[in-house]
Amino acid sequence: MFKKILIANRGEIACRVIRAAKELGIKTVAIHSEADKESMHVTMADESVCVGPASASESYLNIPSIISAAEITGADAIHPGYGFLAENTYFAEVCESCGITFIGPKRSSIEKMGDKIAARQLMIKSKVPVVPGSDGPISADDPNIYKLAEKIGYPIIIKATAGGGGKGMRVVVSQEALKNSIIMAQTEAKANFGNPDVYMEKYIEEPHHIEFQILGDSKGKVVYLPERDCSIQRRHQKLVEESPSPFISESLRKKMGKAAQSAAEAVGYITVGTVEFLVDKNMDFYFMEMNTRIQVEHPVTEIVTGIDLVKEQIRLAAGERLSFDSSAIKIKNHAIECRINAEDPDKDFIPSPGKIGKLYLPGGPGIRVDTHVYSGYTIPPFYDSLIAKIIAYAPTREETISKMSRALKEVIIEGIKNTASLHAKIMNNEYFHEGNICTDFLPKYVFNNRNSEE
Ligand code: ADP
Questions:
Q1: Does the beta carbon of 209 sit less than 6 angstroms from any atom of ligand 1?
Q2: Is 373 domain-assigned?
Q3: CA–centroid distance, residue 108 to ligand 1 (Å)
Q4: Active site (annotated) includes residue 234
Q5: 178, 202, 226 — which closes off a domain?
Q6: pLDDT averaged over the chain?
Q7: Which residue of 210, 233, 236, 237 sits with most ligand 1 atoms within 8 Å of its CB, as the best mutation to test the pocket?
Q8: Do residue 269 and residue 360 come from a single domain?
Q9: Domain containing 323 — which CATH number?
Q10: Where are any strands of DSSP class E within 108-218?
Q11: Inter-residue contact 189 to 163 (CB < 8 Å)
Q12: Dist. CA 157 → ligand 1 center (Å)
């Protein structure tokens, strides 16, 4: 087992990893930018190193500085959290060449799943269903582009090969908008990912976003855990996640879980990862992508399975074997997570950084809160806007919703705008109660087709 882990991240996930390491008896090193020296993760870790100025490119993405911090402090492993360097193959390679374990999958797995077109091809080979789409990158100059779109069938969606965070996507409903949309998606992809390649997929209407947590060990064993339903989204980014899904039957769970397992096996996956699918109204499911890291929404799975995913991730990276099978996992509870972001939901989710005054986060039976913020803390404008995850759990979905509603009423966050009031509306929504959710839920049922959501 590792002796000292450096956490190459900030915010709630850095705190989450530090907690897991401490429970495993492992020393921890926090890194931070100049803007983050008052951050909770810095206080919680055994040691801390400032790795650069506020801008992420000079601090949390500064590979030489992070590796030096690990070497100076004698860390034998680095946990990348999510975002920043978590899916950066070069970083994984540098860690390896410096004799430091990267707590994540092999470089080759990240590489194979990082390019969405390559991942699609690999899934087709592995007999995992994918959304019908183009075989490779598309171009607005291709004389066959209209034929291809017609063959797939409108509406279609144009997506960035290197995509992430819902960026670089365009839905196209008819051929008039096709060429312009391709060009706009390419421009957005280049600006966000440095790679302008885009491809085309059938746009699945009113789908559920269903994903499976998988775990793999170095002996090639892969298991899957019960699904998470992440259909409540804003601009293709998750806002509420729950497990189990109100939409998935036991037999579909098994079928999709096995497909997720095959996807992970196809890339020789080690540690924890997530295979994402879309499920349409006919219960047909399609592979969308694999995230080769721990995800924001992992706590709902921890609650329904009783497995500490971050501790498992660390153990698996240290070479330990998986000690259970998918069939042994029993769903223990229902769990719902609400992401509290420092954003103004009434102003198109514009970020709302600044100093937090009075702060009260909920508690009591059936509530878990993962956060890094405290009263008097200043949310810097440089990083993502997630400030807390409230997770409610109870034996049934209805009881869980009622616990979450109660918890959201307890929230007091003064000084900044946040998404708690929007979550309260969602928990109150009759369609949500019925489990009648899909990725268009928010614009359709909460904002009543207000355009700003799209
Ligand atoms: P990213 O990597 O940017 O998060 P994903 O491929 O994971 O992108 O998709 C994010 C979200 O975008 C999905 O949850 C869904 O809401 C929407 N989406 C992506 N592909 C499709 C599709 N083919 N049809 C309908 N919605 C889609």
A1: yes
A2: yes
A3: 24
A4: no
A5: 202
A6: 96
A7: 236
A8: yes
A9: 3.30.470.20
A10: 156-160, 170-172, 198-202, 208-216
A11: yes
A12: 9
Query: Mind listing the pLDDT tens digit for each residue in 103-159?
Result: 999 999 999 999 999 999 999 999 999 999 999 999 999 999 999 999 999 999 999
Could you tell me if 213 and 189 lie in one domain?
Answer: no
User: Is residue 114 assigned to a domain?
Assistant: no
> Domain for residue 116, yes or no?
no
**Which residue segment(s) compose the domain that 66 sits in?**
4-103
Same domain, 332 and 379: yes
Write down the catalytic residue from 120, 228, 293, 339. 293
Residue type, position 394, single letter = A
- Integer Rg of the chain from CA: 21
**Residues 251, 223 within the same domain:** yes
Task: Say if residue 34 is in the same domain as residue 162.
Answer: no
For ligand 1, mutation pick of 192, 230, 237, 278 (most atoms within 8 Å of CB): 278
Q: Are 80 and 104 in contact (CB under 8 A)?
A: yes
Regarding whether 237 and 323 lie in a shared domain, the answer is yes
First to last CA, the chain: 47
* Other beta carbons less than 10 A from residue 3's beta carbon: 11
Distance CA 330, CA 338 (A): 23
- Ligand 1 atom at minimal distance to the Cα of residue 233: 16
The last residue of a domain, from among 165, 186, 202: 202
**pLDDT, tens digit, 9 for 90 and up, residues 190-247:** 998 999 999 999 999 999 999 999 999 999 999 999 999 999 999 899 999 999 999 9
Taking CA atoms only, the protein residue closest to ligand 1 atom 2 is 164
Beta bridge partners of residue 352, listed in sequence order? none
Whether ligand 1 lies within 6 angstroms of the CB of 136 is answered as: no
Please say whether the dihedral angle defined by the alpha carbons of residues 262, 267, 270 and 276, taken in this order, is positive or negative.
Answer: negative
